Amino acid sequence: MSLSKNKIKLISSLKLKKYRDELSLFVAEGPKLVSDLLKCFSPKIIVSTQAWLDENSPSAEEIIVVSSADDLKSVTQLSSPSPVLAVFYKKECSFISNSVQASSKKSPNSIPAESVPQEFNSPSSLSPNNNCGFASNPITNITNPLSTVSRNQEEVLNSLNHPEYFTNPLSPDSRNQKEVLNSLNQSEYFTNPLSPDFFKEKRLILAIDSVQDPGNLGTIIRIADWFGINDIVCSETTVDVYNFKTIQATMGALCNVNIHYINLKDFCAIAASYNWPLYGTFLDGEVIYNAKLTDFGVIIMGNEGNGISSDIADLVSNRLYIPDYPLGKSYSESLNVAVATSIVCNEFRRLCYNVRK
């Protein structure tokens, strides 16, 4: 079966952030990545070969079988098409708070219906909870909807796996599920990075200041997952986490890391007010291998070209430096931000592991 023109328009439109935000959908490609994301995201459409379907037995609103990967050439964003492509709902639409839902319905920045592919204009084309125009209309003191499910939410959602609630915690068909999910719209279940509750558990948090390359952000998410960092707080000018290249670079790590988009200066100021150390990398910082590191705090990584912005830098309490070797004999202008993030996270975990032993 070949893809219809409407399906091609639907999938192709998601290359643009404005359609991903308006429709609350994103695209992923590749057997392993799609398999991993199926564990934590609800699929709208899966387009794949029969061989992949037989091996994975996925469920989705719509499954389209193609004879070979070549049938995906019209929509793939990879250099060569893979045997599976999936369109997923952004996870936040299942757990968005009532106040954000109400605001997003009134968003003045919503995309006119005529600019959206025709298939999307049908109410049945979107999920019941898919009221998402929020990306262009940030709400103060509400967890940014780009966040994945918080730890407290996950605990509640896990209880939904009891047979009486059905096996799919994202299913809209169970009244009991709806009642429990509605209870998630209480403040204690939302991970608001600007609230005191966010800082109750002392841990490492990554803060990303205007990283622009989607591959870098995706790799940083993967690094955070590897080093057990569950929260990444991004400035509002950081690249979209649902950018195709970001999703591909995460290699499925997005299932395990919460992503928040907020005013980063406000977040850092609040963290400092709770006596959390704020770490950042600078050319005039202390050599990281000699620095006294803690097992909690905010690690700030800056923009690829400009580093950490001046207003955030003023809040940093611990300035670190990753030295070249031999010292002062650098052959490169700087380290890639994802590489630098990996080095910094590794050093924190190495030293903190020794402290805890």
Furnish the topology, listing elements before pairings.
Layout: H1 5-13, H2 17-23, E1 25-29, H3 31-37, E2 43-49, H4 50-56, E3 62-66, E4 84-89, H5 92-95, H6 98-105, H7 151-159, H8 175-183, E5 204-208, H9 214-226, E6 231-234, H10 244-250, E7 258-261, H11 264-273, E8 278-287, E9 297-301, H12 310-313, E10 318-321, H13 337-356
Parallel strand pairs: 2-3, 5-6, 5-9, 6-7, 8-9, 8-10
Antiparallel strand pairs: 1-4, 2-4
Overview of this structure, please?
The longest helix has 20 residues, at about 335-355. Helix content is about 30%, strand content about 15%. It is α/β, with parallel strands linked by helices. It has 3 domains: about 5-135, Ribosomal protein L30/S12 (60s Ribosomal Protein L30, Chain: A, 2-Layer Sandwich); about 150-190, no CATH class; about 195-355, Alpha/beta knot (3-Layer(aba) Sandwich). The chain is elongated.
Order of H and E elements: HHEHEHEEHHHHEHEHEHEEHEH
Number of strands: 10
Major β-sheet annotation: 6 strands, parallel
Class from secondary-structure proportions: alpha/beta
Distance between the termini: 58 Å
Work out the oligomeric state of the chains in this entry: single chain
Domains (count): 3
**Could you say which overall geometry the principal axes of the C-alpha atoms support?**
elongated
User: Whole-number average pLDDT?
Assistant: 79
Q: Which regions have little confidence, pLDDT < 50, spanning 5+ residues?
A: 93-116, 121-153, 159-175, 177-190
Q: Under CATH, the topology of the largest domain is which? A: Alpha/beta knot
What is the CATH H-level superfamily of the largest domain? SPOUT methyltransferase, trefoil knot domain
Tell me the β content.
15-25%
